[in-house]
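Fig. S4 source data, part A: sequence.
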Amino acid sequence: MRAPLRRPPAADAPATQFATLALAGRDVRLEYAWVGSARADAPLVVFLHEGLGSLAMWKDYPGALCAAAGVRGLVFSREGYGRSTPRPPGERWPVDFMHRQAHTVLPALFAHLGIRAWPWLIGHSDGGSIALLYAAAYPDRVAGVIAVAPHLFVEDVSVRSIDAARAAYEATDLRARLARYHADPDSAFWGWNDIWLDPAFRGWNIEAALPAIRCPVLAVQGEDDEYGTMAQVEGVARLVPQARLVKLPACGHSPHRDQPAALTAAVVAFLRQHGIGEVAGPR
């Protein structure tokens, strides 16, 4: 494995702090940042990134969404991503890595940061799955979930696209581009790619957990998502009766990049429906 490329975070990333958590018998340092409203009593939205994401890779979307909704935001990089602690050498994520993030890491991070009010969770891709798992495991600790292109189970289209990403990482400048957002791009890429392409992961499925969710849920997916079909968000609607679906045309796997205005409008309307914030004027 090549030595990591070490570059500064993207220039548009928010200022970061670090939280050190004791996880699985060792200390793990997670980078995080507060965005949006400076009011400590403002409703809190926690952003959970995708399988190749990080705090910096969200760019300015969390701040823009929080400004539009009138809320406070918490953005952080999971272990192995951004400037958080990389994966230990040779360690692979287990099949239940998203469950561990939801059941262990998020509660530990919230406790460390003194978060007591019920947060809203907005998760993209793997982050959307983690948000749903957290809401299912802790139904009395979450105000609501916005799941953007979440995964409930593994589809052939997901495996094909992730396999194509492996070829691109090995043969193109993808590694160098990811190094803008990750201090150790190999940690981020191979952690995600290896587990998703592991034959043992084909049986991963979180559908059985979802009926325990009691909070409001907004599930969003692009109609041109290259990593999953509409069966994913339609599964959310089937298993969580109170869920609302938004299907975005001319949009791939990352609505916050492909259709940011449409995503923001849907999220702000959803939050307002549940008594959160007022729409702000143009930025």
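Fig. S4 source data, part B ends here. The longest strand covers residues 26-36.
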